Amino acid sequence: MSWIKNIMLSFVAILSTLIIIDKLFYKDSNTIKRHVVLREAEPNISLDKYPHDLYMKDVDKNSLQQKKYRFSTNSDGYIIGPGETVDSSQNVDLIFFGGSTTELMFVDEDKRFPYLVSQILKKKSGEVHSLNGGNSGNNSMHSVINLIAKGLNKRPNFVLMMHNVNDLSGLLRTNSYWDTAKGRAIVQSTHVKNSFYEFIKNVKSLAFPNVYSHFVQVFGSPNLFSTDEWSGVEVVNIDTEKVSRSFRKSLKTFISVCRSWGCNPVLMTQPNRLNSSDTLVESTYNFSTLSLLFSYHEYVSMHEKFNYIIRDVGTEEGILVIDLDQHLSGKKEFIYDAVHLNTEGSVEVAKIISSQLVKSFPKLFY
After folding, report:
1. What does the pLDDT look like over 5-14, one tens digit per residue?
2. Which string of DSSP letters, residue by residue, matches 317-351?
3. What is the CA radius of gyration of the chain?
4. CA distances, 248 to each of 141, 311, 317, 320, 323 (Å)
5. Do 69 and 114 contact (CB within 8 A), yes or no?
6. Which of 123, 131, 266, 281 is packed most tightly, with the most Cβ within 10 A?
7. pTM of the full structure
């Protein structure tokens, strides 16, 4: 087996030579590569998601089943329904954007409301295609970026967006959509160390492009429960009026982009269990870092205010607002923690959205 030994020695010699050359000719650099982040679900996956025991610790176990939930996406990072093969170049009728409350990871795949709405509307008006652009942690500015980057080219008739809690949690810490936790930043920076380091990274990406991402999708990030994504973020003196104005501006940006490209924008308020009588939700909040800045009562009031802003902006702009808050909030049988719908809640939301669309646009859905 001497040939194997020779190959190994040759590989070590070549690698060592490359490292020496790199150190001689390429010093460590402070070069920074900056890019706008497209926060989306991993494209082209189909796997089972399972709510971990640590996740179940902070949810209403009577409202969420701890089982496997199928999670599939197309080549554009949109969540799709069972058996769907929606091509990334195909035009669609409806696109939904939002955070984890639109993503609906722990909802049966045929009951996620972005998919189920299309199935309900099909019975009234023939073929209807929808896409789910929800992604955990996304705020309304992320959704605007996703809309521009991968939504407008689908020429959707309707773009529906639901945001509140992710905008609120970030703005209440920094007053800004730009100064935020590293993982939620709109602009990401990558420090380029040296050419050899970049070479090894590129080889890894070419040789094993899916191993790490698939590991994270199946098992979750190794640091998911061990680190606080907001640690290291400088907390400023919060101006709640500025926070409200920023959210209002972001919603108006969404509406303006939709209108400029001939889409019908639709806003949705966020249903929730944020109230003084829900001891589970209050207890979970009091263990969060945000509780060091605002009392539970103050936080609940701000969430209510954000839902009010959604309604107000809708009235000002003359667009449809689907008031899910009014219909579902406080109903434990539909919401398993502060804001996340279970399967039954998602089905109820799909019925409400479908009904409102048919009522508001009878000529399009008949």
Report:
1. 778 878 778 8
2. HT-EEE-HHHHHTT-TTTBSSSS-B-HHHHHHHHH
3. 23
4. 11, 10, 12, 16, 17
5. no
6. 131
7. 0.85
